[in-house]
Design a protein that fits this description.
34% helix; 624 residues; alpha+beta; 23% strand; 8-stranded mixed sheet
Length: 624
């Protein structure tokens, strides 16, 4: 039986608004975002937000912006009516991509008013009185004068009250409040020139979790909103690059890798002042921190990308949280290189950083070249199973009368406590005094004690050396094997390594296919000459399998994939915990750390050293 033919007809305006509301107003936080953005576009200097039950019961936004007349308020409730697109952008030759306001669609107010009771009150400068207009689920119920100062006040109540199918999908008041707080935080960070307040009333108790002043410095505003300790655990970002249409600029602050979180909720990204949650940008952040954070940890930062409007499309989604770039790879590379450049000059700090003078010295030192002779024995893959000289055990026994003397036991390996050299202040990590648990180096600096995790520190040094080797000659960074190693693997893992072979060779690891289920290793990086090739290749294949798929491009860029690979190489080639180092090697390790970028944390984001000031030591013994 043929289906009954239905004629095409226009949908009622009220139904159209409800359909549009499904795209714009999915929850109270989405409605709040539209209202606060309207206040910002109106030129407000102060914006107050009041919520009841996280916005489920009521949302109220008050601003001191330019306001609206009665006629403009009536027009504002019509779809696609807006004051934010000037005539030059509307005509047939207009370029809508040049819009600079947060809103421009003209959908927010009619969409919200179609699924809630919306009260709009506004007054323009110079008017004797303001005006109030109330729309209840699409119908006008009040249109009268009102007394209020210059600006606008919008109240939203009973959201989705007549749309039970949508109402039941809303979360708890607590969840809706958290989502709304996140919205206001992001907008407040984007505009440090505006004062924001947020108040939430739940269970009869009111709280004010956010209150900022106008004209605050950007770092101050960001650290106040995200976390106050971020100011002491971050580096400033400020760089520019030219594009075909102007200048692309990146500013903000980025947390040190040692200051990280278990979720990515503390990453705030902005494009031309607009808060966004863009996959390309989050991927760029992850790529920049790829060799400095554990895979399950996330950086804390606020990045502001200003780009010519011709190079970005903000009209991708009704919520305007997604953008599309004309040169996506260029933007991604700009962010990755910018973050790495900033972290390379500022993140020698660990969680407890050295003083500013020491930091300036480290910045002047540069990256260094070859390790010292003592540290060279570590990089060359020395045989740690052999007895180590210089430990101090034999010397101590000889001095105290040999093994038969009870005074000789127990024997330690601590260096004789000679006076610090005159230039000790130039070495922030101090002079090695000994080793604890064959894992931690104890050093004395001019103003305290320093503890260094030898494996974590050396892992970072090896990684940075491998990176620098990538720019050198193959003969300098690679050590050929006398007899190539054959490593049997799954066919899929062999495929992955074969695809990455060209990139691996740039860093000294030469592999080739050896049948369907095996790889042939012909050379390894000089820095990890004693590595277990079978275990290394399996770990590399796992890294590529896990981190290969990525976002829109379908796979990681080769350079970023190699970052994971190099991190795995470095872990295999570094000094393990539990291995004995002599004092000369400890000092060499400390000096190399002082001249190496990112030495404040290992490849997984953990600190490589901590410092206890003499003031703290004296407090422990009651001397202070």
């Amino acid at each position: 039986m043929a289906p009954e033919r239905a004629s095409i007809r226009r949908l009622p305006g009220e139904l159209v608004n409800r359909i549009a509301a499904g795209e714009v107003v999915e929850r109270p936080a989405a409605a709040l975002k539209e209202l606060v953005e309207n206040a910002i576009d109106a030129g407000a200097r102060r914006i107050g937000v009041a919520l009841v039950d996280g916005g489920l019961a009521r949302i109220e936004v008050t601003d001191d912006g330019c306001g609206m007349s009665a006629d403009e308020m009536e027009l504002a409730f019509e779809r696609h009516a807006t004051s934010k697109l000037p005539d030059t952008l509307i005509g047939p030759d207009g370029a809508i991509e040049l819009v600079r306001t947060l809103g421009f669609r003209g959908e927010a107010l009619p969409s919200i008013a179609s699924v809630a009771r919306l009260t709009l009150e506004s007054r323009v400068a110079g008017a004797d009185e303001g005006w109030r207009r109330v729309v209840d689920h699409g119908g006008v119920v009040e249109d009268t004068p009102a007394a209020l100062p210059v600006g606008t006040r919008v109240r939203v109540e009973q959201i989705f009250a007549r749309v039970p199918a949508r109402r039941k999908f809303l979360r708890t008041p607590r969840s809706e409040y958290i989502a709304s707080l996140d919205i206001v935080r992001r907008l407040a960070m984007a505009r440090p020139d505006i004062a924001f307040t947020l108040e939430n009333c739940a269970g009869g108790k009111a709280r004010k979790p956010l209150s900022t002043q106008a004209d605050e410095a950007l770092p101050t505003r960001v650290s106040q909103i995200v976390a106050r300790e971020l100011a002491d655990n971050s580096v400033a970002i400020e760089l520019e690059r030219g594009t075909a249409h102007g200048i692309m600029r990146l500013t903000g602050i980025a947390g040190l890798p040692t200051y990280n979180r278990g979720v990515a909720d503390h990453q705030y990204l902005f494009v031309n002042g607009r808060p966004v949650k863009d996959r390309l940008l989050t991927g760029a952040v992850r790529g920049a921190y790829s060799d400095m954070l554990a895979r399950d940890r996330h950086a804390v930062l606020a990045l502001f990308l200003d780009i010519p409007p011709q190079d970005v499309d903000v009209n991708v989604h009704p919520a305007k949280t997604e953008v599309r770039f004309r040169d996506a790879s260029g933007v991604r590379g700009f962010i990755v290189s910018g973050l790495r450049q900033a972290l390379a000059t500022g993140d020698r700090r660990s969680a407890q950083g050295p003083d500013r003078k020491a930091m300036e010295r480290w910045k002047r030192e540069g990256e260094g070249s070859e390790p010292s002779p003592a540290l060279g024995s570590i990089f060359a893959g020395r045989d740690w199973s052999a007895p180590q000289s210089g430990s101090g055990v034999a010397e101590a026994r000889a001095e105290w009368g040999g093994p038969q003397s009870e005074q000789a036991l127990p024997a330690g390996r601590a260096e004789e406590a000679a006076p610090l050299p005159e230039d000790a202040a130039q070495y922030p990590l101090g002079i090695a005094r000994g080793q604890v648990a064959n894992t931690y180096i104890v050093a004395e600096s001019a103003d305290g004690l320093v503890l260094v995790d030898q494996h974590a520190a050396h892992e970072r040094l090896v990684l940075e050396r491998l990176k620098r080797a990538g720019a050198g000659e193959a003969t300098q960074r690679s050590q050929a094997l006398l007899v190539p190693d054959v490593v049997e693997m799954d066919e899929a893992d062999c495929d992955r390594l074969e695809d990455a072979a060209e990139g691996l060779a740039r860093f000294g690891l030469t592999v080739e296919r050896f049948g369907p289920g095996a790889m042939l290793v012909r050379a390894v990086p000089s820095a990890i000459a004693k590595v277990d090739t079978a275990k290394l290749l399996r770990d590399l294949a796992d890294d590529i399998a896990k981190h290969g798929p990525q976002e829109n491009s379908g796979s990681l860029l080769l350079a970023e994939r190699l970052e994971y690979v190099l991190a795995t190489m470095a872990c295999h080639g570094s000094v393990r915990a539990g291995r004995v180092l002599n004092v000369a090697e400890m000092n060499a390790l400390l000096r190399e750390m002082e001249a190496t970028p990112r030495s404040g944390q290992c490849n997984h984001g953990r600190p490589t050293w901590v410092k206890l000031s003499m003031e703290d030591v004296e407090k422990l013994f009651g001397r202070h």
